[in-house]
Amino acid sequence: MEPKTAKLIGQQLAVKSALKGLFIAYALFAWITYSWDKNLMKCICWIFYVEFWYHLLIGAFGLIAMAYFFGRLAGIEILIKGRNEFITGIKHGFIILLTGTIIGSSVGFV
Q: Where are the alpha helices (DSSP H) in the chain?
């Protein structure tokens, strides 16, 4: 397999996984706010009612950007170098989560 193809496959899978995780986190908080007897539309659009929405969006962008970058590296490690998929996926998943969190959190310090 070519390295270009391996990078593309890793990038696509990592970005899809990051988007699924962001959707689950968004839906989980919407479900929690709905249990507080709030309006359903306000619960679905909860991000517009918090003061730190900008930080959340920057963090989401940082998470997707890091998934793009580290997903390419994971694709090379798994498909070309033949490393263990589970260990490499866990390793790169934590790296993506850590770097995305640092990017999202650093916005509050600026």
A: 3-34, 40-44, 53-75, 85-106
Question: Using CA atoms, how far apart are residues 28 and 41, in angstroms rounded to an integer?
Answer: 15
Q: Is 81 in contact with 91 (CB distance < 8 Å)?
A: no
Q: What is the DSSP letter of 108?
A: G
Question: Looking at the predicted structure, is the pLDDT value of residue 102 above 90?
Answer: no
Q: Decide if pLDDT at 110 tops 70.
A: no
**For residue 15, pLDDT beyond 90:** yes
Total structural domains in the chain?
A: 1
Looking at residue 107, its amino acid is V
pLDDT at 106: 84
- Quote the radius of gyration of the chain (alpha carbons, Å): 17
pTM, two decimal places = 0.84
Give the domain range for residue 54. Answer: 3-109
* Cβ-Cβ contacts under 8 Å for 93 (sequence gap 6 or more): 17
